C-alpha cells in the first residue's frame, strides 16, 4: 500500500507526564512503581498522528507547540509502545531523534480515561492498516484470476417470461366464487338458513307483532288426533254426535261434514 501524502490527527491529550525509567533488569516487563511518579521530568501535550501505515506519538509544549520528543510506531502492540505490569495509566515509549538514536521513556496520564483513549487510538489505526492490506491482496488476486464472467444482456437481447400459470389460478379462483349477492354457500351437509320475506298484504306503517316461539302443530295432527281419548266423566259415548246424525232420505247423497273435507 502506498504511503499517504498527508498526516491526520487521531488523538489529542492535553496533559501527559514524562519519566526517566531505570534499565529493565528482567524480562518480566516494566513497573511504574520503580519510577519517581511524584517527580516527572517533563509535562506537556500529546498528539497522535498517522501518515500512511505509521503512527507518530508527539510530545509537545502546551503553549508554543514546540516538539519535545517523537516516537514512530510501526506496529502495536510492539517494541515502540509497551504497557507496564502494575498499572493501566503508564506506558513505556521508544523515542527517536531522526538521526538513528533512540531512548526509552515512561509516560503517564492523570486520568484513566485518557490512557484508555490512547490505547484505543493506536489499536484502531493498525486495525485499519490490516484491513487495507487485505483489500489490496484481494484486488491483486482478482486481477490475476483472469477476465471476469460477463452475465449482462447484450445489445438487442431480450428474454421471455411465461406467466400463464398465474392466469389459470385467477380463473379457478373466480369460478369458485358464488355469483349473486355475495352470500357464501352453506357448508356441505349443513342446513341452510332461510330468509323469511315480509307478507305481501301488510300495509305500510303497520308493525307486525313478533312471531311466537311456540311450536306449531300441523293440520293433520289436529284433524287426526291419534292420542287415546280421555275418559268422560259423564259416561256419554264419544260417538254420540255421529249416532244422533239424521239419516239421509232415499235417493239423496249422504252429506259429509265440512270439517273432514280435504
TrEMBL record:
It comes from the Eukaryota. PANTHER family: ADAPTIN EAR-BINDING COAT-ASSOCIATED PROTEIN 2, ATP-BINDING CASSETTE ABC TRANSPORTER-RELATED. It is found in: Cytoplasmic vesicle, Clathrin-coated vesicle membrane. Involved in endocytosis. Gene3D superfamilies: Pleckstrin-homology domain (PH domain)/Phosphotyrosine-binding domain (PTB). Belongs to the NECAP family. InterPro entries: NECAP_PHear (IPR012466), PH-like_dom_sf (IPR011993). Residues 164-262 are annotated as: Disordered. This is Adaptin ear-binding coat-associated protein 2. Signal peptide: none annotated. Residues 6-164 form the NECAP PHear domain. Residues 211-221, 249-262 have a biased composition (Polar residues).
Amino acid at each position: 500500500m502506498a504511503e499517504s501524502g498527508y498526516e491526520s490527527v487521531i488523538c489529542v491529550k492535553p496533559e501527559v507526564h514524562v519519566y526517566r525509567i531505570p534499565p529493565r533488569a528482567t524480562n518480566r516487563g516494566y513497573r511504574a512503581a520503580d519510577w519517581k511518579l511524584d517527580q516527572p521530568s517533563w509535562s506537556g501535550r500529546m498528539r497522535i498522528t498517522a501518515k500512511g501505515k505509521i503512527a507518530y506519538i508527539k510530545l509537545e509544549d502546551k503553549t508554543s507547540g514546540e516538539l519535545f520528543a517523537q516516537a514512530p510506531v510501526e506496529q502495536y502492540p510492539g517494541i515502540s509502545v509497551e504497557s507496564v505490569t502494575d498499572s493501566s495509566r503508564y506506558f513505556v515509549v521508544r523515542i527517536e531523534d531522526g538521526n538513528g538514536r533512540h531512548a526509552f521513556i515512561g509516560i503517564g496520564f492523570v486520568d484513566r480515561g485518557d490512557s484508555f483513549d490512547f490505547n484505543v487510538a493506536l489499536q484502531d489505526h493498525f486495525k485499519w492498516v490490516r484491513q487495507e492490506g487485505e483489500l489490496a491482496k484481494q484486488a491483486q488476486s482478482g486481477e490475476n484470476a483472469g477476465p471476469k464472467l460477463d452475465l449482462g444482456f447484450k445489445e438487442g437481447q431480450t428474454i421471455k417470461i411465461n406467466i400463464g400459470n398465474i392466469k389459470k389460478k385467477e380463473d379457478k379462483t373466480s369460478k369458485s366464487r358464488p355469483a349473486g349477492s355475495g352470500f357464501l354457500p352453506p357448508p356441505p351437509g349443513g342446513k341452510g338458513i332461510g330468509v323469511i320475506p315480509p307478507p305481501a298484504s301488510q300495509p305500510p306503517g303497520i308493525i307486525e307483532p313478533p312471531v311466537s316461539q311456540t311450536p306449531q302443530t300441523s293440520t293433520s295432527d289436529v284433524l287426526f288426533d291419534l292420542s287415546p281419548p280421555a275418559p268422560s266423566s259423564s259416561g256419554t259415548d264419544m260417538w254420540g254426535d255421529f249416532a244422533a246424525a239424521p239419516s239421509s232420505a232415499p235417493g239423496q247423497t249422504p252429506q259429509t261434514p265440512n270439517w273432514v273435507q280435504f
